[in-house]
Amino acid sequence: MRIETLVVPPLDNNVYLVVDEASHQAAVIDTGLGARDLLAKAESLGVKIIAILNTHGHADHTADDAPLKAATGAKLAIFEVDAYRLARNAKESKWFLPAPPPAVTADLLLKEGTTVPIGGVVLETLHTPGHTEGSCCFYDEANGVLFSGDTLFAGSCGRTDTLGASPAKMKASLRRLAELPPDTKVLPGHGPATTIGKETWIADLAYPVV
Ligand SMILES: [Zn+2]
């Protein structure tokens, strides 16, 4: 497996191209305003993007879902309870986007445990609510990699004071992630990569806390 990390607008979003080198298939984790860059990277590697996976429905992460889906024919996936945000984003102006993203519909509504195969790479959906109700992480157990979206960053977590967010659920989700193997590589939606083992604070959270 090969992972390409691209930092793209509108908010220095990390978007990832996950490549299965044997099959030349790839998945994209979040799009931001990165469709053009992702397409160029996929072309340079000679791989076909077959799936677009959203870690959650915030517009800075989903902005280019529609153009990337149109350009590739890839299946678009988002956790089921965040799917309404794709339609909502198309109707809302955001200070960080020049225009609302085009409306787009998910092809696959993810649930806890849904697995998405990309050739020989298997990405498992872990429901990690807190930042939004349908935030999820994508876990490649075989390769020890977690795409953590805005749930877990290096040294912090995503905000929990906006629509659909919950500090209590965030704590429970972080405690869940703390159970993963310490050497699991964490690739977040913003900022640098880390590992579960480096983020010792997530195991120390008091629970339940409301
Ligand atoms: Zn977010």
Tell me the helix content. 10-25%
Strand content: 25-35%
Largest sheet: 6 strands, mixed
Terminal-residue CA separation = 40 Å
Shape: globular
Order of secondary-structure elements: EEEHEHHEHEEEEEEEHEE
Structural class: alpha/beta
Description:
By secondary structure, this protein is of the alpha/beta class. It has helices at residues 35-45, 59-62, 65-72, 84-89, 167-177; strands at residues 2-8, 13-20, 25-29, 48-53, 75-79, 108-110, 115-118, 121-127, 136-140, 145-149, 152-153, 156-157, 185-188, 194-195. It is globular, with a radius of gyration of 16 Å. 47% of the residues are buried.
Summarize the structure.
The protein has 210 residues and is α/β, with parallel strands linked by helices.
Features:
210 residues, alpha/beta, six-stranded mixed sheet, 5 helices, 19% helix, globular, binds zinc ion
Structural topology:
Layout: E1 2-8, E2 13-20, E3 25-29, H1 35-45, E4 48-53, H2 59-62, H3 65-72, E5 75-79, H4 84-89, E6 108-110, E7 115-118, E8 121-127, E9 136-140, E10 145-149, E11 152-153, E12 156-157, H5 167-177, E13 185-188, E14 194-195
Parallel strand pairs: 3-4, 4-5, 5-6, 10-13
Antiparallel strand pairs: 1-2, 2-3, 7-8, 8-9, 9-10, 11-12, 13-14
The structure holds zinc ion.
